[in-house]
Design brief:
This is DUF2490 domain-containing protein. It comes from Flavivirga eckloniae. InterPro entries: DUF2490. Keywords: Signal. With 233 residues, the protein is mainly beta. It has one domain: Beta Barrel (Porin), CATH 2.40.160.40. Helix content is 7%, strand content 70%. The chain is built from one helix and eleven strands.
């Protein structure tokens, strides 16, 4: 087992060493909503406006609509649909602008260690393209905590972190399953009880193929909206 791990790391290092790596700078602007309908069911929305070369050129447009079910207090399942438009950008552009329809299923587990909220999850994506359907698995780890609180205990400023590993799991992967890694950190500023804004940075490391790698430095600006739509007695 030890020899296998060493050999895998060696092969990965060789591939990265010979690949043409492009360092690029982007910005993502996004809105995420979560709307509680019942004790168990939620509606989730997202729109992401992704730009290349800071804000000069299109990178990606993503619209998501989904639902989640809280099986237990700390375990939830979800599914949904995404409409994604991908644009040619940067040093390794796609051949032309294209649209993907994505269906996803996910589950997440949450826990809390003192003031730190921790989450673990998996998201399975089915990417429906014009000439093929691809399947991808995301492994997600996240954490957040308050750093400034009011006298009443409400968060005035918080920090959040996540890491996502992307694995291609279909026949088109040809044994090269690891495709992308995202590392994210941000400051979270609650505007009121329903709305939080965040300002952060994400490093997006993408292996396009053996010869082409993207290392994207991305400014992240987000708005998170939560509403409880249950009828009040």
């Amino acid at each position: 087992m030890k020899k296998l791990i060493i050999m895998t790391l060696f092969v990965f290092t060789c591939l990265v060493a010979k690949a043409q790596k492009a360092d690029q700078f982007n910005s993502w602007w996004y809105y995420s909503g979560k709307y509680r309908l019942t004790e168990k069911f939620n509606i989730q929305t997202l729109y992401s406006w992704s730009r290349h070369d800071f804000i000069k050129k299109w990178q990606q447009s993503k619209l998501r609509l989904g639902a989640s079910y809280d099986y237990l207090k700390n375990i939830s399942f979800g599914a949904g649909y995404e409409w994604v438009v991908l644009f040619p950008y940067g040093a390794h552009p796609v051949p032309e602008k294209r649209t993907e329809h994505r269906i996803y299923e996910q589950f997440s587990i949450k826990s809390k260690i003192k003031t730190v909220s921790v989450s673990y999850g998996m998201l399975l994506e089915h990417r429906i393209m014009e000439n093929r359907t691809r399947h991808r698995l995301r492994l997600i780890f996240g954490a957040k905590m308050p750093i400034i609180r009011s006298k009443e205990g409400e968060t005035k400023l918080g920090v959040s972190f996540f890491n996502q590993v992307f694995l291609d799991i279909d026949k088109y992967a040809n044994g090269n399953h690891f495709r992308q890694n995202r590392v994210y950190g941000a400051f979270d500023i609650p505007i009121n009880k329903a709305l939080t804004t965040s300002l952060g940075y994400m490093n997006q490391y993408i292996i396009i193929n053996d010869n082409r790698i993207e290392n994207d430095h991305t400014l992240m600006v987000g708005f998170f909206h939560k509403l409880d739509l249950r009828k009040k007695d």
